[in-house]
């Protein structure tokens, strides 16, 4: 078997949708919408759409009326209906961003290619696949969703947009991605700057706290030293006072002795001992 045949078979297998049960997801509309877009086969999706199951989802569709003309009437309406379903409910759920839109657009290409497999004539099939690519690039070229998609979100000036106008707008998605990346980078820088500022503030507060603690410790030490000096001075003063009192008492004793009559008898009595 040729290598190209193997790759072709593998690509076809990946593109083929598989049957998927959506019953366990009834209470989770976000997961349910993704299941309907990416997991159900197109016939299964159309059955759900016909039954409006569940009615809480947005089932409106205009069938890709703003896309390039379909002169050979290839059966693109089912794929377009699922595409509109994706746009409408992603908007409803607040998920209609660059990444979400890209996923829905890529599923449109898968669905249209699968529809082209029903075309029997080889040249018609090639034409069908070429138009499927044109539809895909039409929606990928318009960052905001291509005109209107029956969801009430109309982009002025896009309803009558030609393929030429779309080509002129090519690259807007990239610009938006770059802008988003730049904004994210700026936010990250701002966050880092704030964190750095908070860190510096915390460091300053820590240093100030340490300085204050040192000052309080120094004051405490100074107060203790002052208290010790006052205690020492008080002790010294008490000692001096005591010495003065002793001296005063001694003086008083001497004065009394000088005045005492015994002073005269001591020299007489002392030799008699």
From TrEMBL:
Entry keywords, A to Z: Signal
GO terms assigned for molecular function: phospholipase A2 activity
Gene Ontology biological process: arachidonate secretion; phospholipid metabolic process
Basic and acidic residues composition-biased segments: 166-232, 241-253
Name used for this protein in its record: Prokaryotic phospholipase A2-domain-containing protein
SUPFAM superfamilies, A to Z: Phospholipase A2, PLA2
InterPro entries found in the cross-reference section: PLipase_A2_dom_sf, PLipase_A2_prok/fun
Region (Disordered): 166-253
Lineage: Eukaryota, Fungi, Dikarya, Ascomycota, Pezizomycotina
N-terminal signal peptide: 1-15
Highest taxon of the lineage: Eukaryota
């Amino acid at each position: 078997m040729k290598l190209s045949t193997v790759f072709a078979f593998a690509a076809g297998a990946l593109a083929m949708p598989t049957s998927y049960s959506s019953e366990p997801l009834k209470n989770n509309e976000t997961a349910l919408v993704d299941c309907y877009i990416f997991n159900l086969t197109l016939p299964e999706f159309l059955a759900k759409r016909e039954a409006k199951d569940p009615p809480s989802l947005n089932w409106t569709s205009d069938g890709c009326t703003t896309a390039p003309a379909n002169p050979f009437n290839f059966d693109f309406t089912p794929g377009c209906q699922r595409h509109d379903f994706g746009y409408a409910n992603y908007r409803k759920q607040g998920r209609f961003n660059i990444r979400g839109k890209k996923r829905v657009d890529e599923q449109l290409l898968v669905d249209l290619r699968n529809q082209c497999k029903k075309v029997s004539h080889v040249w018609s099939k090639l034409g069908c696949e070429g138009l499927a690519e044109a539809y895909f690039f039409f929606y990928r070229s318009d960052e905001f969703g291509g005109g209107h998609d029956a969801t009430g979100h109309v982009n002025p000036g896009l309803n009558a947009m030609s393929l030429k106008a779309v080509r002129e707008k090519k690259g807007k998605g990239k610009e938006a991605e770059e802008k988003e990346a730049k904004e994210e980078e700026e936010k990250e820088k701002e966050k880092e700057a704030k964190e750095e500022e908070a860190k510096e503030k915390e460091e300053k507060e820590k240093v100030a706290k340490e300085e204050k603690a040192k000052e309080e410790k120094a004051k405490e030490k100074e107060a203790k030293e002052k208290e010790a000096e006052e205690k020492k001075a008080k002790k010294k003063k008490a000692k001096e006072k005591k010495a003065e009192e002793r001296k005063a008492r001694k003086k008083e004793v001497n004065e009394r002795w000088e005045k005492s009559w015994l002073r005269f008898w001591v020299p007489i009595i002392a030799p008699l001992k």
